């Protein structure tokens, strides 16, 4: 029996009996998933995970006795298993979700804001897809992962001229999904201070969470990391994160300066923001004085591949793909590689080296 055919055994952890039943019913409605146990707090969760050895765990964050974060830490050390967090749509909830992803959770599901939404078909589909996706994901332990603490910045030559002389616009576009927050936390601290280029990042994430992601990354970065705002000028030494529920692109004015463009056009392949939209938007720019590097990183599915193909054809962009070993899920990089548009495949910890060399400073 292959991994694809295997029934996914799940443990559901939530302090609410109502939510435990709803989530269990949703998961059991899929022929490929079976809920084999549940727990009402983190302490009980650790016990039942040790006993039942599930394939995937869904974990609420805020629970009595032992919360989801403390349980996650213990699980990752003593009984590593893919964990999908249940996250409330509040600023505090988003912050805790980012922390959970940094600690090794594979993904998260946004809790519905009212009881009438829990049985929506969209939510059901999302829960089932994310649990199945987590089952296919790779667990990268803290000891094996590229250390998530801030790193010394890469030293650039000729620092004084980097931003003063605008010889060309250096645009680095990144498409990333499952496993993305932790991967970004590993590479963003390596962006050098005064870096003569601008990063545009599409991370698949719902509204309310991308702001928290940007804030956490900004706290460990040598450059400015922020959630992108429509029509703001794109500046060097800045990293712009696409807001949840908005496509991120670029537009030009008569002076050929570049600006952020946010739209709520229909989702592409189920995603808004979409990496395809970002890459295709860059390919449509009229000016030729842009040095474009596109990076496709860990994530499920194939978002980004079509856009990279257009970008390669129209702009001769340099395409970087994260390697399989360092990817939590190798779907997006693998798809781009199969399409024949990738120039270099590299592990997570080498991506920034490749970008710096590409920019030529």
Could you please describe the fold and organization of this structure?
The protein has 361 residues and is of the alpha/beta class. The protein folds into 2 domains: 8-136, Response regulator (Rossmann fold), CATH 3.40.50.2300; 159-359, Rossmann fold (3-Layer(aba) Sandwich). The chain contains 11 helices and 14 strands. The chain has helices spanning 17-28, 42-52, 68-78, 91-103, 121-136, 180-187, 210-218, 275-283, 305-315, 331-338, 351-359; strands at 8-13, 33-39, 56-60, 83-87, 107-110, 169-176, 198-203, 224-227, 238-241, 247-252, 258-263, 290-296, 318-322, 344-346. The strands form 3 sheets. The chain has a 7-stranded parallel beta sheet with strand order 8-9-7-6-12-13-14, with helices on both faces. α2 (42-52) packs parallel to α3 (68-78) and α9 crosses α10. The longest helix is centred in the middle third of the chain and has 16 residues, at 121-136. The chain starts with 7 loop residues before the first strand and ends with a helix. Mean pLDDT is 89; it is low at 143-166.
What topology does this entry show?
Layout (H helix, E strand, L loop, with lengths): L7 E6 L3 H12 L4 E7 L2 H11 L3 E5 L7 H11 L4 E5 L3 H13 L3 E4 L10 H16 L32 E8 L3 H8 L10 E6 L6 H9 L5 E4 L10 E4 L5 E6 L5 E6 L11 H9 L6 E7 L8 H11 L2 E5 L8 H8 L5 E3 L4 H9 L2
Parallel strand pairs: 1-2, 1-3, 3-4, 4-5, 6-7, 6-12, 7-9, 8-9, 12-13, 13-14
Antiparallel strand pairs: 10-11
Helix pairs in contact: 2-3, 3-4, 8-9, 9-10
Keywords: Chemotaxis, Cytoplasm, Hydrolase, Phosphoprotein
EC number: 3.1.1.61, 3.5.1.44
Subcellular location: Cytoplasm
